[in-house]
From TrEMBL:
It comes from the Bacteria. This is Transcriptional regulator. Signal peptide: none annotated. Residues 26-120 form the SnoaL-like domain.
């Protein structure tokens, strides 16, 4: 019985370590090291967020190249590592970014989480976050309307 419990704990530790390694590598990404994406994702990865659905590593790499070319700063801080079962888990994070045409070029913070499925690498990555807080609230005309609506609904 003790051996089975130890084996289960070892597997759980391996899963947590996978999530932590993924988060560390992901947080270290920048415009100059996007080749590291191939360390994280399978060739046939499916990446989704509230604004995009991307299939395949080359398309994910192109997405991140475009993302990093459009922002001045982009930083991820991971603070939650939740394993669901072997090969599945969630990462909770805060993203901070600056875009010259949003929020007067000032930093924008967005909380979110990523649902990951993996074997040796991640083959499914789905992000959950408030697209309004990420983008729409910071657009000149639309932002005022969205903030007003959120205030009325609160």
């Amino acid at each position: 019985m003790k051996f089975e419990r130890a084996e289960t704990l070892d597997r759980e530790q391996v899963q947590r370590e996978f999530l932590q390694r993924f988060a560390t590598t992901f947080a270290s990404l920048n415009a100059d090291n996007l080749e590291r994406l191939s360390q994280l994702y399978t060739d046939d990865v499916r990446f989704q967020d509230p604004l995009h659905e991307i299939n395949g590593l080359p398309a994910v790499q192109a997405y991140f190249r475009e993302l990093y070319s459009n922002v001045q700063d982009l930083d991820f801080q991971f603070y939650g590592f939740d394993q669901l079962y072997p090969g599945a888990g969630y990462l909770r994070w805060k993203m901070t970014y600056r875009h010259p045409r949003l929020n007067g070029g000032q930093s924008i913070e967005v909380q979110g989480c990523s649902h990951l499925l993996w074997r040796d690498k991640v083959y499914m990555h789905r992000d959950y976050f408030d697209a309004g807080a990420l983008l729409y609230e910071h657009l000149p005309v639309m932002g005022r309307l969205i903030r007003w609506l959120k205030g009325r609904l609160a």
